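The pair is quoted verbatim underneath.

:::
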Amino acid sequence: MTISYHGIVIVRPPRLRSKTWTPPGYDEVFARSRAMALESLQSTAIGALQTLLAGQPTTPAKVGFAWRIAAGQALGRATTITWTTGGTLRVHASSPAWRREAARAKPVIATRLDQLLGAGVVQRIIIDTGPTSER
């Protein structure tokens, strides 16, 4: 079929006789691709980090690393943490604004820490303003 539009000739291919026509072997390929579940890069990275962290003892360095991953780049830079073996994570924010941000994000960060470190490793998160001498 040929259509002319303001002097431009557009050629359309003829329609197929059947709208349900598929190339040979398409159904098998489609079924196979649906069976293979694709994982997002984020879930793959989290799974790899979980595996790596699971084999390590729970130390302040491990918890600090997990905090920076769970909190994100900006909040991780704006805070310092103190870890106690009793499961308390004390977060020191550099300003009241960052303390508010950390407090707002606390439920999400706690969930991420549980995913990375294991459930129950961090039992309590305390957020306060100002650095301590333990830096």
Summary: Helices lie at 26-35, 41-54, 60-71, 73-78, 96-117. The mean pLDDT is 80. Residues 96-117 form the longest helix (22 residues).
